[in-house]
Amino acid sequence: MSGNIQLLSDTLAAARAEGRSALIAYLPAGFPTVDGGIAAVKAALDGGADIVEVGLPHSDPVLDGPVIQTADDIALRGGVRIADVMRTVREAHEATGKPVLVMTYWNPIDKYGVERFTAELAEAGGAGCILPDLPVQESALWREHAEKHGLATVFVVAPSSKDDRLAEITAAGSGFVYAASLMGVTGTRETVGAQAQDLVRRTRATTDLPVCVGLGVSNAAQAAEVAAFADGVIVGSAFVKRILDAEDDAAALAAVRTLAGELAEGVRGTA
Known about the structure:
Distance between the termini: 36 Å
Shape: globular
Radius of gyration: 17 Å
Order of helices and strands: HEHEHHEHHEHEEHEHEHEHH
Structural class: alpha/beta
Number of strands: 9
Helix content: 40-55%
Oligomer: single chain
Strand content: 5-15%
Largest sheet: 9 strands, parallel
Strand order of the largest sheet: 5-4-3-2-1-9-8-7-6
């Protein structure tokens, strides 16, 4: 069980050994349904993603733009529960053998219970958790239980983070560092920009952890651009949009698999 943070580290190291970035896909649990969400996560991994982040839908997703907010709303109206998130993690990991993390705001974990959440995530085969709104200085309880269960604690850094703050955040984290490429919410962008490259450079000065970039990457060309300077490329809204735009479930899964394949070529510089 405790080997899943190791699997995450090994996956990122293997991508680096191949001279490329890892491709990390994000999809919310319960979207468009629980079973449909599990199938979508598997499709992203089968299509070429190295790692997946399973989103725990939240009623007030402050970091997320309109596309992911729409998906979260569909999932919540469908009655998604934390048990469904754990099932999504378990089935995706068991089917593919690849690392699966949960991305969640702090409030649902706090309500559920930190010990219960970490124990269940580890038992489901999860590799760790990305916690975008948990301040490092308030994270000791979470980190204690995560470490006990062999789970990575991934914190988010932003272009506004000062160097001493970066050092504090990266010292507390494990697995990798999530670098938000720009100020603002998730969503596809025309350009990912130089801010992300500078943030990666400053973050690497404080840590040996891999630095993975998210927010704004939606196609192979942008994935290649970010892969030139980051250890991982994180893509979420573009996958969700493909599902929202699809005419039926089969088309949605095909679209997710195709996008994962295109992005996988992007991070390899073969697009």
